[in-house]
Amino acid sequence: MRFQLTEDQTALRRATRDLLERRFGERERRAAAGGGSLDRALWRTLGDAGFFALCLPERDGGVGLGFPEAVLVFEEAGRALLTGPLIATLRAAGEVPGAASGETVVAAADGWTVEWLAAADVARPDTADAVAVRSVDPLTPLHRVARAARVDPVAVLLTAAEQLGTAVRVCELAVQHARTREQFGRPIGAFQAVQHLCAGLLVRAETARAAVYAAAVTGARTDIAAARLLADEAAVDGARDCLQVHGGMGFTWESEVHLHLKRAWVRAGRGGGGAAAEEALAAALTA
Amino acid sequence: MDLSHTPEDEEFRARLRAWLATALPVLPPPPDPADWPARRARDLGWQRALYDAGYGELHWDASPTTRLIFLEETEAAGAPYVGANFVGLLHAGPTIAAEGTDGQRRRWLPPILRGEEVWCQGFSEPGAGSDLASLRTRARRDGDHYVVDGSKIWTSHAEVADWCELLVRTDPDAPRHRGISWLAMPMDAPGVTVRPLRTLAGSAEFAEVFLDGVRIPVANRVGAENDGWRVTMVTLSFERGTAFVGEVVACRRVLRELAAAARRDGRWDDAVLRRRLGRLNAEFLALWRLTQWNVSEAAAGGGVPGVGGSVFKLRYSHARQDLYDAAADVLGPGALDLDSPWVLDRLSSLSYTIAAGTSQIQRTIVAERMLGLPRGR
Ligand SMILES: Cc1cc2nc3c(=O)[nH]c(=O)nc-3n(C[C@H](O)[C@H](O)[C@H](O)COP(=O)(O)OP(=O)(O)OC[C@H]3O[C@@H](n4cnc5c(N)ncnc54)[C@H](O)[C@@H]3O)c2cc1C
């Protein structure tokens, strides 16, 4: 049993982080937050890097990697606040022409919402009755559908990975701020109330990490459901505590923190929220 | 990322499982929780049975993954808990194994493994709880002995212990962390008085221990004189790192029993209760995965668990309390009846956020040592 990352997996994570830092840094993120249009050039770059073809078998022109690798890549995407219907397009690779290469952008109804519908070339399944809403997340245009779409367990797993990325990132942001911001003549991180908020951030993130990685390894329904619940909690509660640590700065549009919280909310709503996962895990107890 | 075990480990699992299937049915029923001598006898007897079957050494000689399988299988089969052997097997034993001399290992380890001697932990004092380094129990050198005066408190299993891992101050003038030594004290030494304390669960699980001119051979010191704090840190990392592994498996079993009970009496139709149990299932599954993560890291890093144990301990102790609060929900009015199942467990779960370092202390450790935040105070 070697649960830790292999060297290849560590390298993949590093390469993904480097790519996203280069192509989706603060400047690109700010531009995206202004408009709501999808950066097609970035999408093609992701396609060229194999982002959407990760899990497609090599004989079908894919990268042929497993869920553990996909989870690491989506953790990085979550951390970077990367925009666009990433999971829908990855799931369409091999089925919708051009999805794997990043030429075709695919949106999908997931639970009660569709993300990035207007910007997509293809929408799956039928989204004819979708109604645009004013999205709470400035980086994710949203539509609502009348009937809840079927939930795809792989999408749930990859969403959990994105939430993990958020949880880890907001922990880092909170710790950075707590180390540098001074009040009463010392860094606020020396105050125990702040320390304990930060400790809670780490505990939730690391527990979620174990659950998400294990779900990627086993692919089991119960593991995926657990990963989802733990990662939603780590991302949403983590972002809120991170906001608290930032004080007034955390309440500004300027700061990165609210973007993490809002995105975490959007993801937590995918698949109709966590209720189904709780029910599945309850049912598993009596199986 | 790989959660599969080697063929050797799987073979070990199969052998152990087969043995448990024969050993457990012939075990006498558990004694009355208030009957300490009977509890001691049972706990030691079980350790002896493990030893005779070749499983006695697993707590410190096996690879972390083999040990994980051992704890997983014994718990899953409903084998007795380590009980009175807790300190010997999971705490003092590993410390002596890591820090003791050859002679000390030969003297103290075999009787622990063979289920012959019980150990207790004399760290906390009335004036030194969370602030353990402020301990005042004094040891003065007198030839080849220390003469010890002071008192300890909250000493679990002191009533039935043969030995005590004792922290004493050997240099009162040194900075607080540098004047402490770790001694093995025989509990029958003249000058040792044990006064049982009754816990909120009604039984006497721990005691006060008064030390009045107790003579302890210098040869009973593990580690160098005044180096006891470092030795203690080794001990605490064991306590927080691996000591609770089996309990996570046990909690997952309790959760299934709760679901079965809720189904029997119709409470399962209550969506709020059902989803609460579902969420707890996620919680304990995640804690199990976190355990595997920590064990895998320990296996890669040489065996001694790291500060990551604090993350686990924090999360687990609260989850355990949530579990038994949910049990009370399942029981309804039965939760107020001491004869209902889980009610005593609910009471003892209250100690988990206090014993082995309170949750507040653990959070400070996580913040300062793992996240590198500036030290408070
Ligand atoms: C069931 C049980 C079994 C035990 N068994 C043993 C044993 O076998 N051997 C042994 O040596 N000890 C044992 N202990 C003792 C245990 O380790 C101590 O109770 C624990 O370390 C807390 O110390 P205290 O009780 O003095 O509480 P205190 O240290 O007085 O703490 C009281 C409260 O203040 C908080 N607090 C204290 N300092 C700080 C701080 N710096 N920052 C923030 N909050 C703080 C604590 O979190 C707690 O909420 C046992 C305890 C229990 C409950």
TrEMBL record, chain A:
It holds the Pfam family Acyl-CoA_dh_N. Residues 158-266 form the Acyl-CoA dehydrogenase/oxidase C-terminal domain. InterPro entries: AcylCo_DH-like_C, AcylCo_DH/oxidase_C, AcylCoA_DH/ox_N, AcylCoA_DH/ox_N_sf, AcylCoA_DH/oxidase_NM_dom_sf. One of its GO terms (molecular function) is oxidoreductase activity. Residues 6-83 form the Acyl-CoA dehydrogenase/oxidase N-terminal domain. Keywords: FAD, Flavoprotein, Oxidoreductase. Its cofactor is FAD. Belongs to the acyl-CoA dehydrogenase family. This is Acyl-CoA dehydrogenase. It comes from Streptomyces doudnae.
UniProtKB/TrEMBL annotation, chain B:
The keyword Flavoprotein applies. Residues 120-212 form the Acyl-CoA oxidase/dehydrogenase middle domain. Coiled coil: none annotated. It holds the Pfam family Acyl-CoA_dh_N. Keywords: FAD, Flavoprotein, Oxidoreductase. Residues 6-116 form the Acyl-CoA dehydrogenase/oxidase N-terminal domain. GO terms for molecular function: oxidoreductase activity. Gene3D superfamilies: Acyl-CoA dehydrogenase/oxidase, N-terminal domain, Butyryl-CoA Dehydrogenase, subunit A, domain 2, Butyryl-CoA Dehydrogenase, subunit A, domain 3. Belongs to the acyl-CoA dehydrogenase family. PANTHER family: ACYL-COA DEHYDROGENASE, ACYL-COA DEHYDROGENASE FADE29. This is Acyl-CoA dehydrogenase family protein.
